Amino acid sequence: MRAIIQRVTRATVTVGEEQISSVGRGLCILLGISAEDTQKDADYIVRKILNLRLFEDENGRAWSKSVMERDFEVLCVSQFTLQCILKGNKPDFHSAMPAELAQPFYNSILESMRSAYKPEHIKDGEFGAYMQVHIQNDGPVTIELTSPTGPTDPRQLSKQEKQQQRKEKTRSKGPSESSREKGAQRYRQDPNASSGAEGDVSSERET
Questions:
Q1: Residue 29 burial (CB < 10 Å; 0-12/13-18/19+)?
Q2: What predicted TM-score, i.e. pTM, was given to this entire model?
Q3: Integer Cα distance of 58 and 72 in angstroms
Q4: CA 20 to 30 Å from 155, out of 11, 82, 180, 186?
Q5: Where along the chain do its domains lie?
Q6: Arch. (CATH architecture) of 2-146
Q7: Which ranges in the chain belong to alpha helices (H)?
Q8: How far apart are CA 165 and CA 163, in angstroms?
Q9: pLDDT tens digits, 87-108
Q10: DSSP annotation string for 80-125
Q11: Alpha carbon distance 123, 28 (integer Å)
């Protein structure tokens, strides 16, 4: 999933002659959903959009406050062209999620933003419509954000699958006889010694 995040003093969306949405100071988000995106990608993008420190604080110190901390608004616009792959000079959009799947996924992202923030502060365009987006960029400040996804190269995927299969086989076999003998011998030498298994703690670092 890709997002272009722009700090704005004003942004509006017009369809035809009708202005359907507008925000004052805050963020304008252009959001492109790929065919491989999952809820994990959506959660990452939502968290980053709402918590990026793109605004000054009350004392004028830059890069100190998020859109939520400043009580500003967010305008989100679906933008499948962010998933463009160039074939020569011709854009190809096959990596974008099909519209019939992307629309409910996009709506769920908006609902996640509204649940995490103030519903009335989250605005959007009109999915699938031909829109005119007017952005008054403040700064200018523009941040490109891509969610962490798995590899798309089939060879890399195959390599990861083989590595996973080897790990599963190793776990299913359990400890070897020699490992058990070494462990028993170490315990006989020092009954108070720990094998270290109790101290194994895996931690996941938040991105």
A1: buried
A2: 0.70
A3: 14
A4: 82
A5: 2-146, 154-191
A6: 3-Layer(bba) Sandwich (3.50)
A7: 39-51, 99-116, 154-173, 177-189
A8: 5
A9: 999 999 999 999 999 999 999 9
A10: GGGG-EEETTEEE-TTBPPHHHHHHHHHHHHHHHHHHS-GGGEEE-
A11: 9
